Amino acid sequence: MDLTTIFYHRDEYCKLFNTATSVVLLETDKPKRARAASLSLSEIITLTVYYHMSGFKTFKDFYMRSGQIRSGFPKQPSYNRFIELHERAILPLTLLAKIFGKYACDGIPYIDSFFLKVSHPKRIPSHKVFKGLAELGKTIVGWFFGG
Prior knowledge:
By secondary structure, this protein is mainly alpha-helical. It has 6 helices and 3 strands.
């Protein structure tokens, strides 16, 4: 698939996503920034999906060295700014993966996990956020959830 085709499909998905979530999401009292990001949500998702299809080992190499994305996205922000913008795409990407997750796996699973440090061992019973999802572990560094 070429970059234009991927962008078209992700842009159509983002239009549906924005329409559906604008009705459901709650408003906050926090003031919103007036300045728009240099990349739209569909462009962020397109770059993320295209990275997984590219064959690059790390996202930083893909982002910094891929000449095709430079020509396709002339307003491309710096790598650090893109990582900050990527936070906006977590929910839409998760839903997109859930929608298309019904297709068979190609046999190459990818699991990414990280540990969450426990502040103090006496507070372990009060941690309820990942109850039933993450196991408690201990290393030389200290106690953590995850692994």
